[in-house]
Specification:
Blueprint: E1 2-6, H1 12-36, H2 41-53, H3 56-81, H4 89-106, H5 112-141, H6 145-167, E2 190-191, E3 194-195, H7 197-213, H8 216-226, H9 228-233, H10 238-265, H11 276-286, H12 291-314, H13 319-341, E4 342-346, H14 347-353
Antiparallel strand pairs: 1-4, 2-3
Helix pairs in contact: 1-13, 2-3, 2-12, 3-7, 3-8, 3-10, 3-11, 3-12, 4-5, 4-6, 4-10, 4-11, 5-6, 5-10, 7-8, 8-10, 11-12, 12-13
Length: about 350
């Protein structure tokens, strides 16, 4: 019988070689597929680079994709660190956007700085509440947070759909199911395609690094993730730690909702997440739940997203091919992580060793 067994920690050299080899193998396989699609693979890869860094506008688009993914990944990372499997970043993202939009609808004439502050605050609160619900049930009744948070995604999506198609539908949209665009005093200021969410994200990264590595609650979250019995033995309040971690995790994901409607889309809609909440799970996991690696991997994934978007239009290749290239690279990267952490063995081999 075949078994999957966890390896000892791999050497740094092996990690580098396997990861680089995975990327190269992905590029080779992608090149074959691209060639069959009628495009030149070399030109395509140059196009990906140009699509991400070829101009200030394109680089701004890359950063625009990195910002929400980075903050979402940091949010997911906090929950994962204590082995609370938050699969609901999409729902928290949407509910944060609802909270931010609610501020605009209730207080449309606030000055820009106060408006943005209130939007960010309510987005954080809505996102936090959306995750604290399953966290409370997990802490008190031992419910499965994976299923709970996943189902809350669909509840949030249904709620936003109801707002878009009915309750908050813009009367001036000529019957189209659309929520009114945000006014100018609710939009993040921008320069050459770079909006204020980038500055906020830099601050969030620094705060989260301190929070996870230097603070008492960060230590308690890490201990709880390693062993609940150990956490209880050294006097950590389990319920309190779970609720605080959920508040931070969900709040960060909710904050992204404000960034997205105020800095990118300009209005709340069911399309604003673009699946980034699920991509953030992969980024956080591949980063080993460490803030610096989350930053690097978020940038790498943003290059994949922006590059795939650019080559689709620049080279007139089908969107499915661009998505396939993206998926192949991701698959090989995930495969390399599996190879680094696990090995396959069999009962026959065990008997031979014995």
């Amino acid at each position: 019988m075949i078994h999957i067994v966890k390896k000892e920690v791999s050497k740094t050299r092996d990690k580098i070689l396997i990861r680089v080899g995975a990327v190269l193998a992905a590029l080779v396989l992608s090149s074959i597929i691209v060639a069959f699609a009628g495009a030149n693979p070399i030109e395509l890869y140059i196009g990906i680079f140009q699509g991400c860094f070829g101009s200030i506008h394109r680089f701004g688009a890359t950063i625009e994709k990195m910002v929400p993914l980075l903050v979402l990944s940091l949010g997911v990372m906090v929950a994962f660190k204590m082995q609370f499997w938050n699969i609901g970043a999409e729902g928290q993202f949407l509910m944060g956007a609802v909270g931010a939009t609610l501020v605009v609808r209730l207080l449309p004439n606030l000055p820009l700085p106060i408006m943005l502050l209130c939007m960010a605050l309510l987005a954080f609160i809505f996102g936090a509440i959306w995750l604290m619900i399953p966290a409370f049930f997990k802490a008190r009744f031992g419910t499965n947070e994976t299923l709970f948070t996943l189902m809350l995604n669909y509840i949030a999506l249904t709620f936003v759909t109801a707002l878009q198609y009915d309750f908050w539908k813009d009367p001036a949209a000529n019957g189209m199911p659309k929520i009114a665009n945000l006014p100018g005093n609710a939009l993040l200021p921008s320069i050459s395609g770079f909006n204020l969410s980038i500055l906020f994200t830099v601050i969030i990264v620094l705060v989260m690094y301190f929070f996870m590595n230097k603070s008492k609650i960060g230590f308690e979250i890490a201990v709880l993730g390693e062993s609940e019995n150990t956490a209880r033995y050294i006097g950590i309040n389990i319920t309190k730690t779970v609720i605080i971690a959920a508040m931070v995790s969900g709040g960060l994901c909710g904050l992204v909702g404000m960034f997205q409607i105020s800095g990118v889309s300009g209005a709340l809609s069911i399309e604003i997440t673009g699946g980034l909440g699920f991509t953030a799970i992969i980024v956080a996991w591949l980063s080993g739940l460490k803030v610096p690696f989350v930053v690097m991997n978020s940038f790498f994934f943003a290059i994949l997203l922006q590059g795939a978007s650019y080559i689709q239009t620049a080279f007139q290749i089908p969107g499915s091919v661009a998505e396939m290239v993206q998926a192949i690279v991701l698959f090989f990267i995930l495969g390399s992580e599996f190879i680094l952490q696990y090995r396959i063995t069999s009962d026959k081999k065990k008997r031979e060793v014995a």
